[in-house]
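Need tokens for this chain, all 305 residues.
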Amino acid sequence: MSEKKIFVKKQEYDTDGRITKILYSDDSWLAHRYSNAGFVTETSCSQDILTEYTYSEKNQIISVESNDGTWERYTYNKDGKETYHESNKMGTLFWRQTEYKKGNVMFIGTSHGEMEKMDYNTNGKVTKYQHSRNGWAEFEYYRGGVIKKERTVCNLAVPTGGFSITDTENNSKIRRKVGNKMVVFDPTGVKEEVKDFNKKGELTRITSIGHKKYDGKEVLVTEYHKDDCHWQSTLTTIKHIILSKYNKEDVLIYQEIDILTSDEVYKLWHDEEGIGKQIKQYEDHLGNYWDSTLGVECAFNIPSV
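Here are the structure tokens for all 305 residues:
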């Protein structure tokens, strides 16, 4: 049996055209009251929940109180930017504190133990971003402010209750007190990615370095070209180099697999239709060759891709 759809049956307005009451098809309702400045000061509903809103002299919300016991509170700096917010609406106490410098957000900390920290250049552009759980990023810019390079290092897995962030260059820990907790930025990153851009802000190259727990390091380089295709070169710890070419629809059309330990090279031409997994042509260092379009087949042990 399908659920009965509830819809708005009627809306009532005050003399200023503001909605004062909404009636629904199931006979429930929601009502609003406003201040002289036009801000909602009270809401009530057919479920007997009454919520009151309080504002500062600058008309910024500073508290929300409901008769069901839930509440929210806000604090601002002299520039009117929010510096503190706490609430019990999620069934537990949550708070977030924010610090500023010259109008820019410099630091954010929460009761969940998360931290964010930002650094800026003289033009107000973010040069470094750090997160206590996910990692950090650095940014370089051309003279006109267009992004030039973006480098990120992230933690793919952080232990429950752990607070870590990578700083591989300085190899140092950053300690910061958030509320009554001491949170540590710890150099334990496992994945690094560098993006290069041209002066038009167009992405030209991505270099990804993955640090796997058991298999070691894997380097993936992606280069983007003006003919709408892009190449990917992958170097793995097991001594494989995989060179892949994709068309503008991001379909794999060509691959070279170079097994460095045995001087073997496989060349694979893929079908440009579908998802690009079907091999169209194949040849290896022994002269084995296969072409699906010509029906020529003299290859053995074609590697799966």
